[in-house]
Each structure stands twice: as C-alpha cells, then as structure tokens.
Amino acid sequence: MYLSPHLYHRIVRPRWFTNKYIHEHIKKLTSLENRSVLDFGCGTGANCTLCDADRYYGLDPDAQRIQFARRLHPKHIFMVFDEERIPIPDQFIDLILVIAVLHHIPNEQITAYLQEFRRVLKPGGKMIIIEPYLSPRHKFNNWFMNRYDDGEFIRSEDDYLQLFQGQQFEHNVIKKFRKCFFYNEILFTAAPEGSQLQDMQAKLPLSNLRANTVR
C-alpha cells in the first residue's frame, strides 16, 4: 500500500523509531561529520540529520517524497532518481547509506546499482546497509515480514551478501538484531574489493558485536 509522504514520515519514519533502529547503529560505526554522504533511497529524508547539510545527497525515485523532504529540510540536497544513473560525479562520495531499500529491488537491478556505487565512491569509500532478512531460526518473523512488508525481495543473509560478493565488494556483517519484535534486521558494511573496512569496525566494541544478535 502506497503511503503519502506525510503519512510515510509519521508512520514509517517517526523520529524515535529512526533514532533507535537506524541512527544509533550508524553512530556507533562511524562519524558522518565532514564526509560526503549519499543516502540511497532516502524517502522523506529522515537520515539527513546525521550529516552536514552541504555534504548530504538524498536520492529517491519517488518525486513526492523528495518534494516533502526538501520542504522539511531545505538546507539539505535531495534529488529524484531515474533508477538508472546516479546524478553524482565519479569518486565523489565518502559513504553510502542503504537503509531498508534493497528488499524492494530485484537482483539484476541491485547488480546495476552496485556498479554505480563503485563509480561514485571515493577510493576507500564505504557503504552501510541495514535490511530486513530471513532467518532460519525465526520462522514467525519471516512469515510476518513476507506477509506485511511492502518489499517483495526480502532475502536471507547469504543472499544479500552474495549479491555484493558477486560484484567484487568486500562485506562485513556487524550486527543482527530484532526490530519491534517482528523484524529480523541485518547491519553490514561493504566496499569495493581492495578497500579496508577495519576503520569502521574499530569504533564498535566487541561487546556490541555480540549483543542482541539474531542468528
């Protein structure tokens, strides 16, 4: 069911929910200060508050949500995505956020987007991905997500990671956790092969890597 931008922002991305299940995880991984950030599938712009306004680039194919985001955050940069070429120069972005986007996109389209991500990332640039995933140990959650989520492509952990590995992206699973009891969520980082991901993980205590893990 399509929600208007206003309803989407209030129901799907309320501030407390976004802080708890998205922003707190990102802030434990890395600082976004003074970094060029592409928010791929930005929706109504809930993640832009993490970033410097003049170095944030929100991208979404929904023109109505982009218009809403521009009104809500007039100092940030939001662009309508044509679902083909990302309108950003080569080697321009330090960090790409992909938050609850890939489970709406088929494999072949993700493969094309990964090539675009490689193009726009600076050498040493990285991605942070948070997605719902299917867990063999939590079949009720799997049923609930498949029944009620609008995404048609919720995948297993291995299926997500193989998409990145198949396009020569290194990946590291940081955490698996529950969201509102009914969702299995996976947080992982990725970068084109040859980049190093250790600097992100160094900020995350080992105790956090083990805490609240969903297998």
Which percent range describes the beta-strand content? 25-35%
Amino-to-carboxy terminus distance: 30 Å
CATH topology: Rossmann fold
Overall domain count: 1
The H/E string reads HHEEHEEHEHEHEEHH
Helix percentage range: 25-40%
Number of distinct beta strands: 8
Q: In CATH terms, what is the architecture? A: 3-Layer(aba) Sandwich
- Poorly predicted sequence stretches spanning 5 or more consecutive residues: 198-215
Radius of gyration over alpha carbons?
Answer: 16 Å
Under CATH, the homologous superfamily reads Vaccinia Virus protein VP39
Derived structural class? alpha/beta
Shape: globular
Average pLDDT: 89
Number of helices: 8
Summed up, what is this model?
The protein is of the alpha/beta class and 215 residues long.
Model description:
It is a single chain. The chain is of the alpha/beta class and 215 residues long. The chain has one domain (5-210): Rossmann fold (3-Layer(aba) Sandwich), CATH 3.40.50. It is 36% helix and 27% strand. The protein has 8 helices and 8 strands. Strands 1, 2, 3, 4, 5, 6, 7 and 8 form an 8-stranded mixed β-sheet that branches. Strand 5 (121-134), helix 5 (139-148) and strand 6 (155-156) form a beta-alpha-beta unit.
Which terms would index this structure?
alpha/beta, Rossmann fold, disordered C terminus
